[in-house]
Structure formats: structure tokens, C-alpha cells
């Protein structure tokens, strides 16, 4: 009656569906933009997990497709720069964690140092990280890369957490320092060190430094030590500990992961007590 080919209607229908699909993709893309604004180097897996936490039930392959089409997939090269000064005469210790099954929090802590570039100087960050939960147990920032830096980070960690069974680090002079080792021994903590020239035996701390650099340090230009300290404190204690999803933790932030572990342990103890009472 309208002198139109029947196929015209089908094409219009398909175009309509295509338009709906494109609109949905753009809506999801906007949500991904907001996530990557907060977590700039999230790949498609953590983006998918974050979308689900925010109520968007979506397939991981779909997220990957949208991120690829809009150029949102990040590619991060692994960087490593050693600050270890292992050519010293202080006592060194064997590697205790090689082939060790780490099955709980506060079992193995790792310690390491990295540099932070300011406009006119370098400062140095020392961290203590739980190898099971990836939570930062203690940290310190200083203009000096000496034992005072690492001792400050260690004392913070021990003042806020139960002591670990094992402390693992490289063979750097800061970790072989007499005062540092004495703190560990007095606390009854076994001392473990990576083999010389093998930084990747401490790869969990290196992974944290990569996260810190790409999601905070490289996105800012710090004018002063105070500005760097404030930004890094916020990133570690708020963004990393409480918000940023970690793939090895089932896409949970470290604090939330530890809270679930501790809640499970309390529940187990309560069940045991109930059985004893009965």
C-alpha cells in the first residue's frame, strides 16, 4: 500500500536495535569512565567487579569489548628499580618463604623501599605489607633512605597490628641494620630475606609500588614533601586499603578482605565455644 519494499521495515528494526545497543554501551562507558577516574589503571576485570559492586550486573566479555572499542584498556609495563645496597658486612638471613604456603593474615609481612620524585628532590617510601591480605600494615616517608625510615615503618606496623611470624625483605643495609634486626628479634619474629639479585622474590611489595606509582604518583607533580605525604597517605589509607579492588582477594579491598577473614575466625571460635558449653 505504501509502495515500500518489505526489507525496509526489517532494516529499520535492526537499526533501532543497533541504536539501543549503542545507547546502552555509551551508558556503560560513562560508568567505566567514572570508575577509571578514581582508579585510572583498572583493567577490564576489576572494572567488571566494581560495576557489579555498584549494582550493574554485566558480563566481563562485554566490559572488555566496550573498553577496547573506546580505547579504555590500559597496558602497564612492569618497572623495577633496585634501592638495595647489599654490599655490606652486616649479617644476612636465609629465605624462609620460598615454597611456603601462606594461608592467613599476619603470618608473613614483606618490607621494601621505593622512591618518589618531587619537583626539586627525591623522597623515599618504606612499607610493610601483609603477603596474604595485601594490606599495608605500616609505612613511612622520608628524605633520607636509611634505617630510620624502615624502623619508623616497622614500629608503626607493630603498634597497630598483631606481630607476624615472618618478616621478609631484601638484603639491603636498611633491613640488616642492627637496630632493625633487634626490634624483630625482641618481638619474636623470624627474619627472612630474598636471594641476592632476585628482586621478584619480594614481588608482592613491588606490585603495590606499581599500583601506587600508576594510580597516584605519576598523576601528580608534588611541590613539597608535605604535599607528597598528604597525597600518599590518602591513597594508602583510604583508596588502596578501603576502596581499590584486588584480583587476588576475590575483588575486595584489603581492609574488607581482612574483616571477612577475622569475622570468619570469630564465628569459628564462637561455634567451638557453643559446642563446649553444650
Portion of residues within helices: 40-55%
Enumerate the strands of the largest sheet in spatial order, edge to edge or round the barrel: 3-2-1-4-5
Approximate strand percentage:
5-15%
Helix and strand string, N-terminal first? HHHEEEHEHHEHHH
Description:
By secondary structure, the chain is of the alpha/beta class. The protein has 9 helices and 5 strands, in the order αααβββαβααβααα. The chain has a 5-stranded mixed β-sheet with strand order 3-2-1-4-5, with helices on both faces. The relative contact order is 0.12.
Brief rundown of the structure:
The protein is of the alpha/beta class and 278 residues long. It is built from nine helices and five strands. The protein has a five-stranded mixed beta sheet, sandwiched between helices.
Keyword list:
49% helix; 5-stranded mixed sheet; 278 residues; elongated; alpha/beta; 9 helices
Describe the protein's topology.
Elements: H1 6-38, H2 44-53, H3 60-69, E1 108-117, E2 122-130, E3 136-142, H4 147-160, E4 166-169, H5 173-176, H6 178-186, E5 190-193, H7 203-215, H8 225-243, H9 254-277
Parallel strand pairs: 1-4, 4-5
Antiparallel strand pairs: 1-2, 2-3
Helix pairs in contact: 2-3
Amino acid at each position: 500500500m505504501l509502495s515500500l519494499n518489505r526489507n525496509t521495515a526489517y532494516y529499520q528494526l535492526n537499526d533501532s536495535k543497533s541504536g539501543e545497543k549503542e545507547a546502552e554501551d555509551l551508558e556503560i562507558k560513562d560508568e567505566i569512565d567514572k570508575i577509571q577516574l578514581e582508579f585510572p589503571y583498572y583493567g577490564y576485570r576489576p572494572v567488571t567487579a566494581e560495576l557489579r559492586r555498584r549494582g550493574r550486573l554485566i558480563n566481563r566479555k562485554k566490559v572488555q569489548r566496550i573498553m577496547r572499542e573506546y580505547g579504555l584498556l590500559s597496558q602497564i609495563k612492569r618497572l623495577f628499580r633496585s634501592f638495595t645496597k647489599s654490599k655490606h658486612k652486616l649479617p644476612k638471613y636465609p629465605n624462609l618463604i620460598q615454597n611456603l604456603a601462606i594461608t592467613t593474615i599476619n603470618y608473613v609481612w614483606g618490607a621494601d623501599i621505593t622512591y618518589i620524585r618531587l619537583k626539586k628532590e627525591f623522597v623515599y617510601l618504606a612499607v610493610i605489607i601483609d603477603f596474604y591480605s595485601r594490606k599495608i600494615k605500616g609505612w613511612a616517608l622520608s628524605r633520607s633512605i636509611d634505617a630510620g625510615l624502615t624502623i619508623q615503618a616497622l614500629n608503626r606496623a607493630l603498634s597497630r597490628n598483631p606481630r607476624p611470624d615472618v618478616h621478609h625483605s631484601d638484603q639491603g643495609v636498611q633491613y640488616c641494620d642492627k637496630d632493625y634486626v633487634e626490634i624483630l628479634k625482641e618481638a619474636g619474629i623470624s627474619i627472612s630475606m630474598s636471594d641476592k639479585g632476585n628482586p621478584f622474590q619480594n614481588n608482592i611489595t613491588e606490585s603495590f609500588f606499581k599500583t601506587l606509582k600508576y594510580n597516584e604518583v605519576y598523576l601528580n607533580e608534588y611541590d613539597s614533601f608535605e604535599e607528597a605525604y598528604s597525597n600518599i597517605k590518602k591513597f594508602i589509607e583510604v583508596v588502596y586499603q578501603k576502596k581499590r579492588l584486588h584480583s587476588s582477594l576475590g575483588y575486595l579491598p584489603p581492609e574488607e578482605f581482612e574483616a571477612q577473614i577475622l569475622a570468619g575466625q570469630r564465628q569459628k571460635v564462637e561455634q567451638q565455644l557453643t559446642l563446649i558449653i553444650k
